[in-house]
Amino acid sequence: MQTDSKISVFGGTGLVGSSIIRELKKQGYLNIDAPRSNELNLLDKLQVDEYFKTKEPEFVFMVAGLVGGIYGNSKRPADFLYQNSIMILNILEAIKNFSPKTKILFTGSTCIYPKENPQPINEDRFMAGRLEETNKGYAVAKGLGVVACQLYRQQYNINAIALMPTNMYGPNDTYDLENGHMIPSLIKKFVEAKKNKSPLTFWGTGTPRREALYVDDTADACIYLMNNYNEAEIVNIGTGFDYSIKEFITILEEVIDYKGEIIWDTTKPDGTLEKRTDITRLKSIMPDFSPRSFKDGLRETLKADFGWEEENGVK
Ligand SMILES: NC(=O)c1ccc[n+]([C@@H]2O[C@H](COP(=O)([O-])OP(=O)(O)OC[C@H]3O[C@@H](n4cnc5c(N)ncnc54)[C@H](OP(=O)(O)O)[C@@H]3O)[C@@H](O)[C@H]2O)c1
Fold first, then answer.
1. In sequence order, what are the residues at sequence separation of 6 or more whose Cβ sits closer than 8 angstroms to the Cβ of residue 83?
2. What phi, psi does 313 have (nearest 5°)?
3. Pairing between strand 243-244 and 209-210?
4. What pTM was computed for the model?
5. CA of residue 248 to ligand 1 center, whole Å
6. What does the pLDDT look like over 103-156, one tens digit per residue?
7. Cα separation of 136 and 134, whole Å?
8. Which CATH architecture has domain 7-169+214-237?
9. Atom of ligand 1 nearest to the CA of 36
């Protein structure tokens, strides 16, 4: 990408899209178009066709989607399937027909890998086993998007790359306790418990290990790969390190300065004991990739979204 290249970000109001825009601007890119869904509804083929016919963007970051946690996914599985499938198909078809020189970067997700995996999870696990029941609609649609990128590349020479980011958190996240992801939900719970001086209860023993990637590190990797990668193979974007749930909680306690009680309800199940992404392929393309620690990412997130200050804590 040149600093004046025509770049489009679909999903620019979201967690990942807003971070990509921030990073693009920081790196000096000037010509960024980020239409909202009410300006360009990616579910509407005619609107998508018109966009590519008239704008012919050189680079597209496709990070729009219907995204949610276990609750949202299990309540609306058909919506997750339909919307996430149609958006990427509309875009690839429009690129093929009206703007074949466009390079597109699409994000799948590590949560669409099969339910059971040897750890850490590498890219060969894609479509290698039975899916998690709770997010089947989302996983099938995202998997379709990944395969679509590969097939449009194979048949029509479209420059489409597909990446598999792990669970993320960061500024501009959705702090929805029912529908959100693990880290933003934990952050929100701690902030509220600190304000209300109430105890916090967590399920299980706290021993399962999880990975959480600060979203600006994902954005960095996406921009780097847009500039330096053009192959059919998917690429994981993870941290390469993980923490036990207990360790996440201890860091949250310390940074938010929460002094209340923490209760572990060990009658509840622990869930999968380990979930970690293999980032060997990413490191072979981007050797300098070095995501920040949870403590550092948490501080940035609290500053941006909760008015947190080093001296005074959460406002
Ligand atoms: N968050 C994670 O931890 C995570 C992990 C792995 C992969 N991912 C992937 O990363 C991508 C971005 O996730 P996110 O967490 O940033 O999502 P998000 O915060 O929920 O944002 C979703 C974005 O999609 C846009 N959008 C939804 N429906 C649209 C439509 N019909 N037409 C146009 N735009 C539409 C929204 O635009 P408006 O606001 O304008 O409606 C919004 O900007 C997704 O593909 C997701 O699967 C996310």
1. 43, 65, 66, 141
2. 75, -155
3. antiparallel
4. 0.96
5. 25
6. 999 999 999 999 999 999 999 999 999 998 889 999 999 999 999 999 999 999
7. 6
8. 3-Layer(aba) Sandwich (3.40)
9. 40
